[in-house]
Amino acid sequence: MIARAEMVNAHHWRADFPALDQSVHGNPLIYLDSAASAQQPASVIDTVARYQREDHSNVHRGVHTLSHRATEAYEGARDKIAGFINANSRTEIVLTSGTTESINLVAQSFCRPRLQPGDTIVISHLEHHANIVPWQLVCEQTGAELAVAPIDERGEIDVEAMLALIDDKTFLVGISHVANALGTICPVERIIEHARAREIPVLVDGAQAVPHMQVDVQALDCDFYAFSGHKMFGPTGTGVLWGREDLLDTMPPWQGGGDMILEVTFDRTTWNELPYKFEAGTPNISGVIGLGAAIDYLRDIGMQNVAAYENDVHDYMVAELAKVDGIRLVGEARRKASVQSFLLDDIHSHDVGTILDHQGVAIRTGHHCAMPVMQYFGIPGTARASLALYNNREDIDRLVAALQKAREIFA
Fold it and tell me: What 3-state class would DSSP assign to 182?
């Protein structure tokens, strides 16, 4: 159970998010869609606005004051990210547009030049499309094969089956830290340990983990870790690829243009140093600065406090949803974080979402960019309620009441 002092603090956290102070269809907004995109605290919004008002300029290239200020804030965010996930060096932090670009970067820069026909990339049946499609593409390009570990009715990976797939033919393992459709916390530590013993690199999709728990990439001992800013209270269009410096150093750039070069002639081009050789073109400067502010916000609260509080609300949500007549919980893993998918009677999930929206309750409906998961359960999609630190038990009570209203409408 969460400490009483932290429960009190939760009311203060909620007040930090301006978007939550509004009504939708005449009802106070209850936002339960943070797995898709989390709301931003005022400190992030104000930081981005301040940059746009006072410091907007391009980074790295200018000698004037605004460019210096923009560069200092932008590179300062990189330092904050490195500290937040305990990277060994700031040169291991590659700034991207999000998890999707980060995974594509590894697929095209690390894997494509090295993969051979007959090699395999191992993933699980739980993955988001962003941790499926890039590997499919690179397998088609190289003649490699994609091997998929099965899941069970709980929504848990069959770990023994996955470990059995990781063999002498395996080139790389890609695994979600937390599954976005079901909230399953995957046994990444065991998978990484198994792969490490065989000198097989592992990429972890951390998009749904970084906002909800302490992540230490050195302790995990993975090789790549990808995540997005907008799921951790930062702006959209921001993301991170953390990679081991020795691996990043051997990888060629995957995009060409400004800022990723040291010298260009028509005969040859010399790449910039890490991490800039992977950051072609003008970046999302305001977004990255906003991401730095989001990290400041989370660190001030403490990720252990975030995890403890959210676990309490999540347990309450699962227990209360289970009491609703006609509910089917989809994904009942023993270790979960922030998410619960469900079906209500035979009502289409889009209809559930629409009825809830008219009561001011925002949830996500559909396949959640995890169509193979839905195919496994034999359903087109689910309704999904997902939490952040600004949610509380009263939000869950509103969710349950709205679901009961939906049953009345369709009775």
Answer: coil
Kindly list the structural domains of the chain, giving each domain's residue range(s) and its CATH number in brackets, ordered by start: 4-31+302-410 (3.90.1150.10), 45-300 (3.40.640.10)
Collapsed DSSP state (helix, strand, coil) of residue 340:
strand
Could you tell me whether strands 170-176 and 120-124 are parallel, antiparallel, or unpaired per DSSP bridges?
parallel
275 preceded by a cis bond (ω within 30 of 0)? yes
- Element of type H or E holding 384: strand 382-386
Kindly state the helix (H) or strand (E) to which residue 100 belongs, with its residue range: helix 99-105
> Rounded distance, CA 97 to CA 128, Å?
17
Q: Say if residue 2's pLDDT is above 60.
A: no
Tell me, what's the pLDDT at 374?
Answer: 96
- Contacts of residue 275, defined as CB under 8 A and 6 or more positions apart, other chains included, come to 78, 90, 91, 92, 93, 94, 95, 248
CA atoms within 13 A on the CB side of 186: 33
In angstroms, what CA-CA distances link 306 with 193, 215, 298, 362?
Answer: 27, 12, 8, 21
The separation between the first and the last C-alpha atoms of the chain, rounded to the nearest angstrom, is 37
* Residue 8 scores a pLDDT above 80: no
Whole-number pLDDT of residue 271 = 87
* Alpha-carbon gap, residue 73 to 290, rounded angstroms: 10
Q: Which residues are catalytic?
A: 369
Which of 195, 138, 132 lies closest to 162 in space, CA to CA? Answer: 195
